[in-house]
Amino acid sequence: MTTFHTYDAIGRSYSTQRQPDPRLAARLDVLIGCDSTVLNVGAGAGSYEPVGSRAVAVEPSPVMLGQRSPSAAPAVRAIAEALPFRARAFDVVLAILTVHHWTDQRRGLEECGRVARDRVVLVTWDPDADGFWLVRDYFPEILANDRQIFPSMKMLSAVLGPIEVHPFPIPGDCVDGFLGAYWQRPEAYLDEEVRAGISAFSLLESINPQLERLEHDLTSGNWERRNAELRHRADLDVGYRLVTAERRCAELPNERCS
User: What is the pLDDT of residue 252?
Assistant: First the structure.
């Protein structure tokens, strides 16, 4: 499983390749609410930290911490499995595309629930999803790996209590360079700088044959013939999910959540 030590090696371009997409940021702002105290767990270089909220970041990798802007939220070097905060210290705990990198996911989620007063908000990928053309046709090993390392919705519910799962279709011009961001721009996956911002590639022993096949299919028109309909879509559901767990509901099961 990927740990923060991996990010010391691969995370050096995250501040440029992993810029927050404004549409995802807007949806997160709604879920976080106004004037909330926020703990951003696995905060990386600072993407999606809410503006106007009192936020604190947790990040274990010194390479990632070193890329944070001077204007970013104050950061603590720590791991999700041992958050150095008292119970119910923050209104909202935020964890964006990070749970699959934790060494002990259950413990990390328990810690998120412990320090959250109102809710836990996660951005993750559903291992029951089919993925998209890149992992289906060229890198099935990424799909297999992701199904092993991403927590299931059932597991999230077992740890956090009742959850709401919101699909997040990815815009065709997504700004944030995670794995599924370039589903409508296949040429991007041939760019080494783009791949450097995607941790899934770092888990593979060999990628050159697959990249050569993708390049050949783009040049020959094979990719276009198989995926022509994607050029006309505004967005695509490739399995990313926004997950919320209301802590007030979990602690007061007989109370209705507002």
Answer: 43
Kindly state the helix (H) or strand (E) to which residue 61 belongs, with its residue range.
none
CA 134 to chain centre: 18
Q: What is the mean pLDDT of residues 129-137?
A: 97
Altogether, the residues listed in the chain come to a count of: 258
Query: How many whole angstroms separate alpha carbon 171 and alpha carbon 127?
Result: 20
More confident residue, 246 or 251: 246
Model confidence at 18, in pLDDT bands (50, 70, 90)?
Answer: confident
Rounded-to-integer distance, Cα 26 and Cα 41, Å: 19
The answer to whether residue 70 scores a pLDDT higher than 80 is yes
For residue 217, give both structure tokens. Answer: 């299919």
Position of tokens 């450097």?
A: 196
| HSE-up of residue 206 (Cα within 13 Å, Cβ side) | 4
Tokens describing residue 65: 């911490």
Q: Nearest to residue 147, comparing CAs of 132, 125, 169, 166?
A: 125
Strands 37-41 and 54-58 turn out to be: parallel
Give the separation between CA 137 and CA 91, rounded to whole angstroms: 42
Backbone angles phi, psi at 36, to 5 degrees: -90, 145
Find out whether 98 and 243 touch, Cβ atoms under 8 Å: no
CB-based burial, 9-36: b 16+ in 10 Å, e otherwise:
ebbbbbbebbeebebbbebbbebbeeeb
Per the listing, tokens 């740890």 go with 159
